Amino acid sequence: SWRRAGAAMRTEISAAAAFVTRLLRAAGGIGEEQLRCFRECLQEALREHYRQHWFPLVPSRGSGYRCLRINHKMDPLIGKAAGMIGLSHERLFQLLPSELTLWVDPFEVSYRIGEDGSVCVLYESPQPGGKPTRPLEGRTSCKEEWRAGRSSPAKNYSIMTVSS
Question: For the residues 28-56, what does the mean pLDDT come to?
Answer without folding.
Answer: 96
